[in-house]
Amino acid sequence: MPPILLPPPSLLRVASASSPSGADSVCDRLGPGLCCCYSMAGQGFFQDIFDGEAFKYYADGEWKVSSSRASVSITNPSTLKTQFKVQACTQDEVNKAIESAESAQKLWAKTPLWKRAEALHKFAGILKDQKNAIADVLVKEIAKPLKDAVTEVVRSGDLVSYSAEEGIRLLAEGKFLVSDSFPGNGRNKYCLASKIPIGVVLAIPPFNYPINLAVSKIAPALIAGNAVVLKPPTQGAVAALHIVHCIHLAGFPKGLVAAITGKGSEIGDLLTMHPGINCISFTGGDTGIAISRKAGMIPLQMELGGKDCCIVLEDADLELAANNVIKGGYSYSGQRCTAIKVICVMESVAEELVQKIVQRISKLKVGMPEDNCDITPVVSQSSANFIQGLVEDAQKKGAKFHQEWKREGNLIWPILIDHVTPDMRIAWEEPFGPVIPVIRIKTVEEGIHHCNANNFALQGCIFTKDINKAILISNAMESGTIQINAAPARGPDHFPFQGLRDSGIGSQGITNSIIMMTKTKSTVINLPVESYTMG
Ligand code: G3P
């Protein structure tokens, strides 16, 4: 592929005006082939991260080209063409990046908390200023609808700022204990306990929220005094590199943050088993289970997907339920771990609910992310093939369809699969696509059983007007979070967010992430005697 000779900024500025999002991106000018995408906002804001052929990796405070001279291609899910390339970093480059993160962290840990918070607020401001350019990358890299892409960037800036303030609140205080509160002790030992940084955090976000789920790891780690090594997903890597440039420009110490791109087969084990990594925060699929088996004695924070069950009772507000199924089940084409992934509806109201959902599905706009369509191409051909496999299995086993199956490339038209039975794969597996199965139940217990019989246990939701019943059912559903009269959702980002069983380890949400990325240090003062005797 010949290197792209970039037009002079003045010409590029003209080109950037053509970008659909009004973003300062030159993607459109250079066409759907290998496109270099960097913002022209403020004179080529992101041009340092691009070498004309591939986006660079970031280590030791600099944007670098890998000595491997190899790159990893990123396919645009909408065009099925190579959109970007990123470096295929070598193992030596991984080692060097972790080494400089370790030494930078020692200084960062000594940086006053208020200064750490100040740097994060600066990062948040830069990130939000660049929302259009970064959203443009999300549109091309993961086919996220433009409006959702902009929202993700703004939400991420808010998450960074909230992390800064929550970190000050949490880490400003420690614990003071005296010994005589425990039987057999006098008051001659004073214990001062406080939270200190854990060291170097390996952050591995997923493709579907490469900005928000990156900063949901990076910001808590940094405010807690840690260093961060970011290993972005292949699709989503360029978006993630854009946020790292915002971190770079916010003036964090050299080496404190690194962003390593490359083939998981070449550097995955080195990263996750590296002795210089003191904590791993991973969001994604069952790769997380393999990581948890290899990582060794370090804290792990993982979220590995869900099969969020929506139970609809006879007294439910069916308009509300149908609206939430659309919003919670089909947004971003169902590619959300918290998406509604199965509906268990009491059979007496099932027909009415199904018709309401079908009517709303017919109004969903299907097409390209640049046009802000509701349903856009799923992230890859393999994902689209997997979804199709689940649908065909249900068809073969007698499920009822309210829409024709339609697929063009990675673009799958939304469908509702009715009269699903437990022998169908779609009843249990996570499609991560715009397809939702409906199971008609005779008792609430059937719905609770279906929720609890699944290996996943991320979120779920209940629609009923009886709040007492809702709370009792929530208590019986063994998922990390149950939403009452609303669709599952991770946000707002300061709420605790956790998956149980195969859905994850530990708990996220800003507060829990900060705490999990620290360790406790105790200093005990031993007095010679228990009390001072006068005279
Ligand atoms: O799939 C990632 C998960 O975090 C979804 O987030 O805010 O869309 O519920 P949200």
TrEMBL record:
Residues 66-522 form the Aldehyde dehydrogenase domain. Its main location: cytoplasm. It catalyses: D-glyceraldehyde 3-phosphate + NADP(+) + H2O = (2R)-3-phosphoglycerate + NADPH + 2 H(+). The keyword Repressor does not apply. GO terms for molecular function: glyceraldehyde-3-phosphate dehydrogenase (NADP+) (non-phosphorylating) activity; lactaldehyde dehydrogenase (NAD+) activity. InterPro entries: Ald_DH/histidinol_DH, Ald_DH_C, Ald_DH_CS_CYS, Ald_DH_N, Aldehyde_DH_dom, ALDH-related_metabolic_enz. It comes from the Eukaryota. Keywords: Cytoplasm, NADP, Oxidoreductase. Its EC number is 1.2.1.9. It holds the Pfam family Aldedh. The keyword Metal-binding does not apply. One of its GO terms (cellular component) is cytoplasm. PANTHER family: ALDEHYDE DEHYDROGENASE. Belongs to the aldehyde dehydrogenase family. This is NADP-dependent glyceraldehyde-3-phosphate dehydrogenase. It comes from Physcomitrium patens. The gene is LOC112276475.
